[in-house]
Amino acid sequence: MEARLTTYSPGSCAILQARTRTKATDPDPLFGYVYEEITDREGAQAQISAGLDRVALTGGVDWVNDEIETSSAPARATYDNPAGFLLAKGKLLGERLTLSAGGRHDSYEVEIKEGEGGKEEDDHFTPNVGLAYLVTDQLKVRANYGQAFVVPGADQLAADYPNPFSFTGARVLGNPDLKPEKSATWEGGLDFTGKGLFASLTLTKTLLSSDRWGKLTLKGDITNLFNSDYEYVKEAQIVESAVNDYIHKTLMIDLTKPMAVASTLEGFREKIRHVGNSYSPSQVWGLYHRIGLDASRQQFMDSLGRDRVDTSLLFTGADMDNLSVERRQYKAMSV
């Protein structure tokens, strides 16, 4: 990495120029690949602070611009993000109560070059508020609320390259319809100081709203494997999605109408529109045992864009690259 940072006294302005080179290789004869990435970054930040009686104000602007070149699609992309921010902090009740509030407005543009994608533009405002109150000289109570967001990268919008973990020759594809990942965080806590002792307790709750998770998917249409005898099958696909940084492969069958399902995992269910089986790689089995079935199942549903209300899935170690469709019949029952 090559970088140059210039600051201007009294530290209220800074300009950054940097170049980052990344190279990853795997000589494996089956899954081998070479990936290279060069990122040229320019950025600047300026801020000013002022004290007005019992209120302190800090405001400023921030700008980041990235030029990215990679050895896979998209080969060239730019990312531009100007922003402005303002923070106010005031003290009341004899300085026992501290209130703070602020916000940041970001505009961003992701442009994919060489005809491999288009341009994505948006803007977003993220607020934050907080308070702290000295109940006694030793005990302080505090609470904060804030929001954040992360924009999708060029690879998530327009990736198109061979999947190194697939035997079928399938490709990893980006999703041009992705929106920013948003989060909201609530935090509360207590601080105690006295007689050389400091103790602190903090409780945090974060909610994520995201369609980025698992949307970098590979889809292979296998509807033709289900012949005309399966009139209830609308569409069948092998869907590969990234969950917890590993590729999961799911057989997803969309039904032509709501149906009743007998599941070895969930029992008898009705009004089901989507059924399937999801393969999890062995690297994440321990994680899923720790977080439990409900949490891991919700992760799968989010990555596939499905709702548990009308979807019934099995979760196994059977690799969907080895899928075959077989039919067995006994008397009036056909499986």
Structural key phrases:
single chain; 335 residues; mainly beta; 2 domains; 10-stranded antiparallel β-sheet; 5-stranded mixed β-sheet; 19 strands; 7% helix
The helical percent reads under 10%
Stretches where pLDDT falls below 50 for ≥5 residues?
211-219
Described by the principal axes of the CA atoms, the overall outline is: extended
Annotation field: number of helices? 3
> Measured on Cα atoms, how large is the radius of gyration?
26 Å
Main sheet characteristics: 10 strands, antiparallel
Descriptive notes:
By secondary structure, the chain is mainly β. It folds into two domains: 48-169 and 176-209, no CATH class; 218-334, no CATH class. The protein contains three helices and 19 strands. Strands 1-2-3-4-5-6-7-8-11-12 form a ten-stranded antiparallel beta sheet, with no helix packed on it. The protein has a five-stranded mixed beta sheet with strand order 13-14-15-16-17. The longest helix is centred in the C-terminal third of the chain and has 12 residues, at 293-304. The radius of gyration is 26 Å and the shape is extended. The protein starts with a strand and ends with a strand.
Q: Brief description of this entry?
A:
With 335 residues, the chain is mostly beta strands. It contains 3 helices and 19 strands. It starts with a strand and ends with a strand.
